[in-house]
Amino acid sequence: MKTAHPHSWLLSCLLGGLTLATPAFAQEDEDTPYEYPDEESGQQNSARRQRLQGEDTPYEYPDEEKPRQTREERRRRVEEDTASEFRRAAEGEEEQGYQRMARVDDPNTGVAFEALGGVLMLSSPRGQLLGDALPAVGGRFTWEYGRLLGSETLREALWFDVRYSFAGVREGTKLIVGDTKLHYATIAPAYELTFGESSDYGLYAQVGGGFAYEQTTVEIGGKLTPMDGMKPLIQYGLGLRGRTKVSMESNVRLAWRVELMRFRRGYQDDTFVGASLGTAF
Fold first, then answer.
1. Rounded to an integer, what distance in angstroms lies between the CA atom of residue 257 and that of residue 80?
2. Distances in Å between the alpha carbon of 115 and those of 177, 193, 235, 279?
3. pLDDT tens across 208-258, in order?
4. Strands 158-172 and 176-194
5. DSSP codes, 52-93
6. In whole angstroms, what is the distance from residue 171 CA to residue 98 CA?
7. DSSP conformational letter for 11
8. How far apart are CA 182 and CA 135, in angstroms?
């Protein structure tokens, strides 16, 4: 019976140790918050979704962040922006920084070459109302210098002609014959009123100046006597001008005119009624 005391002592020590350790475990449980099953599963599911989304979802590039516009939508948006820009410019809201694009929109140079023909009625010493009617021919060069001014109104309204025309007359009797040749050279600015905005047709008024060179040969009994002279003149008149488009793919146009002009040389007034036809670039 001597061995019974050690066993009872060991048992008492073991029970005492368990008794002291129990409050320590309970204190540790109080400091650590208890995780409920719902919260733990929710956090795990959220972490799993983020991980799967990072692995499976492709990278979204900047141009894919917004839905792509169709070609019709892009064209409509460009037209609206352009219309708004022109409206603001017309109202004076963007006077600074606005650059006119007329020269880019219209690549024509405003240059034209035309051949002309008609009837020239020379001032007659016999007192006729319109004078002697003679056939007249010539040509002219036209330049629309209004394109240099930067004004939409004056762009095609201002232009000038460099013109040459010729007429001749021969008359007399069997004994005396007179042969007269007239050369007209003029430079005449014009102002045109078109039939609407961006129209290719319009009415114009023209005033200019130049000179008339006259060659006269008098034949008396087979003997020739030449005479010549030069006089300054003033050209003025009215006309109808057109520049018809020949092709949509080309800048070349058909230039034409119908006009009534007068040439004042000295005390004489010569009247020209005719038309011209040529090419404009």
1. 39
2. 31, 23, 18, 9
3. 999 999 999 998 888 888 999 999 999 999 999 999 988 888 888 999 999
4. antiparallel
5. HHHHHSPP--GGGSSPPPPHHHHHHHHHHHHHHHHHHHHTTT
6. 65
7. H
8. 11
